[in-house]
Amino acid sequence: MDLGFETIGNATLIAHDRGPVLVTDPWILGDAYFGSWIRSHEIPAEVMSSIRSAKFAWISHGHPDHLSLESLEAIKHQTILLPDHVGSRIAGDLREMGYKVQVLADGVWTPLTDRLRVACVSDFNQDAMLFLEFEGGVLVINANDATDRGVGDFLVSQIARAKVSYLLWLTGYGDADMLNVHDESGKLILPGAAAKHPIGPTIQGVLEALGIRYFIPFSSMHRYQRADSIWANEYTTPIEDHAKGFDSKKSEILPAFARVDLANDRVERIECAPVTDCIVDPKQFGDDWSEQLSSEEARDLREYLRGVHHLTTFLDFVEFRVGGRSHVIDLGKGHGRGLRFETPRGSLVTAVKYKIFDDLMIGNFTRTTLLGKHERTGTAALYPHFIPFIAKYADNGLARTPEELRRYFESYKKRGFLNFFRSVAAQEAAAAIRPYLPE
């Protein structure tokens, strides 16, 4: 393809200018979340060749369906482009592993060829958006898992000056998050994904409000395969469901796997074979549910949790049940609430060692129980005080203490990317981080 782009896999875009130039979030090999996720569709050989031949690879954030170390090994010759995440954890880790890394300053356009340039905007949730501008005023917005946490003004300004725009964004019923949450009686709290509300109206509303012409389903193409998580396939989003309820006269939904030829003004579907569902024993991924933590591993777990200061302001305790044995970690006092996690030793030890707690949760084999009086229910109870503070700000942003959190949020505030929607959940998130911002 002379000029244009392709979408494939989970959240992979391949930009072409007289050949492959850039690939985003190349999860092309292996699985994710301790073997729980696999891609929903195969990648054709021709497209795989383009991915491997690209000069640059952009990684949006640290989740393994976006930052796949096994996949990066296959394209180690490429220059890795990264968002300017506060903490610079990914940049530091990849440089230590021998990769050539270039960090993109927020909102600054960087030319990759004479007909293609990119700009990146990171956010305080350790997510990021990538903007690609092709010759002729064509704007492609790779929003992957990110939402408008302060990027709105930049987003609107770029759409306004574009001749035509495309949005690639995570939509779906909501299974790309924790689903395995139970109440104190042991009953599964049905996730929002169970309702399977039509997605089309939401997509239509976003496109028409922002003046975007085309939408491509993105960042939600996965299946579960572990015997202890395969139940969650009930809540995944079939590709065709993104268009349900979509009835716009101004915008259009394109195929999820598409080849957009800008030079010839042509769009064609890329035919991809769906993977065959299978059930894999978790032991193949190092998870034997009967194994118990050693005393040293239990100590490391306790130090890991207690090191995230904010948890003491929200929880009295966190209990881990591993191999039938309970480990209670006291945190704060007087909150009247706690959490219990039942999870296998192997993944838990790895999550603590490498500080990737989010991977343990999104795999949906870990069973979470809400104990005591939580203000919200289901997955929502883990926001905004638990998951963001441990997985986003502490693990990825390296901000664990009050002083580190103050520096963390002040950095994003100075960039102008610390805004919130007016929704109830957004205002709760704002209230959670307010103690760490100067008056």
Short key terms for the protein model shown above:
eight-stranded mixed β-sheet; 439 residues; 24% strand; 2 domains; Metallo-beta-lactamase, Chain A; alpha/beta
Task: Explain the overall architecture.
This protein has helices spanning 45-53, 69-73, 89-96, 152-161, 200-210, 295-306, 345-354, 357-362, 387-396, 402-415, 424-433; strands at residues 3-8, 12-17, 20-24, 37-39, 56-58, 79-83, 101-104, 110-111, 116-122, 128-134, 138-144, 164-170, 181-182, 214-218, 222-224, 252-253, 258-261, 266-269, 317-322, 325-330, 337-342, 367-372. It is an alpha/beta fold. The strands form 4 sheets. It has an 8-stranded mixed sheet, covered by helices on one side. It has a 7-stranded mixed sheet with strand order 8-9-10-11-12-14-16, with no helix packed on it. The chain has a 5-stranded mixed sheet with strand order 13-22-21-19-20, covered by helices on one side. Strand 5, helix 2 and strand 6 (79-83) form a beta-alpha-beta unit. The radius of gyration is 21 Å and the shape is globular.
